Write a sequence for this structure.
C-alpha cells in the first residue's frame, strides 16, 4: 500500500475472548513485536500510551501490520474498538511511527548454545508466524534443564487455549529436533 491510499483497519477475533486484533494496511513495525502493559513500559510509543489510556484496555502489542488489544474484565469491546480504531487511523494517516524510540533489550540466560540456537530458529521461523496469525507472539526467555521458558504476548497471554498450544503444538515440534526438551512453560 502506498502512503497516500486510505488507511483501512480490519477487526479480527482471536481464540482468546479477551483479545482482538486490528489489522491495518500499513506497516507498524519493520520486524519483531512490541508488547506494552503499562504506561511506563509504553514510553517508546505514544500510540501505545494512548491506546492503554482507553478504559478497559489491559495490554497492547504491535506486530508488522497489526495491533493486538487485550481487555480487562470490565472492558467493553464496542467502546474499545471504536476508540482504538479512531486512534490508530489518525496515527497512521499522519504517517507517524508506532515506536518513537528503541525497546529495552531482554537478557538471555546462558545454556547449551547449540540447542538454544535451534530452539530460537524454530520459534522465529515457524512458531512465531503461526501464533501471529491469531494476534499473538511468543518469545524465548531461557532454556535450562530441558525446560523452555517462553513469554506469551498479545492474544496468547491469558488465552484458554495457550496451555494446549504449548503442550501439543510447540513441545511436539521442538522435541523433533531437540530430544532433551522436557516441557515448554510460560515464564
Amino acid at each position: 500500500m502506498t502512503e497516500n491510499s486510505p488507511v483501512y483497519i480490519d477487526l479480527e477475533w482471536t481464540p482468546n475472548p479477551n483479545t482482538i486484533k486490528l489489522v491495518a494496511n500499513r506497516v507498524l513495525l519493520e520486524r519483531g513485536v512490541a508488547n506494552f502493559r503499562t504506561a511506563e513500559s509504553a514510553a517508546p510509543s505514544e500510540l501505545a500510551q494512548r491506546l492503554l489510556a482507553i478504559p478497559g484496555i489491559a495490554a497492547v502489542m504491535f506486530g508488522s501490520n497489526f495491533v493486538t488489544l487485550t481487555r480487562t474484565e470490565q472492558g467493553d469491546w464496542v467502546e474499545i474498538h471504536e476508540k482504538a480504531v479512531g486512534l490508530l487511523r489518525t496515527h497512521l494517516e499522519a504517517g507517524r511511527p508506532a515506536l518513537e524510540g528503541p525497546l529495552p533489550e531482554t537478557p538471555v540466560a546462558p545454556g547449551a548454545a547449540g540447542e538454544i540456537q535451534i530452539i530460537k530458529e524454530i520459534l522465529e521461523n515457524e512458531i512465531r508466524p503461526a501464533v501471529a496469525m491469531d494476534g499473538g507472539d511468543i518469545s524465548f526467555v531461557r532454556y535450562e534443564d530441558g525446560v523452555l521458558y517462553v513469554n506469551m504476548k498479545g492474544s496468547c497471554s491469558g488465552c484458554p487455549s495457550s496451555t494446549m498450544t504449548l503442550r501439543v503444538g510447540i513441545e511436539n515440534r521442538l522435541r523433533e529436533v531437540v530430544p532433551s526438551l522436557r516441557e515448554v512453560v510460560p515464564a
In short: Residues 106-110 have pLDDT under 50 and may be disordered. The radius of gyration is 17 Å. The beta strands are 9-13, 19-24, 34-36, 57-62, 66-71, 136-144, 147-154, 183-186. The helical segments are 46-52, 77-93, 113-132, 162-177.
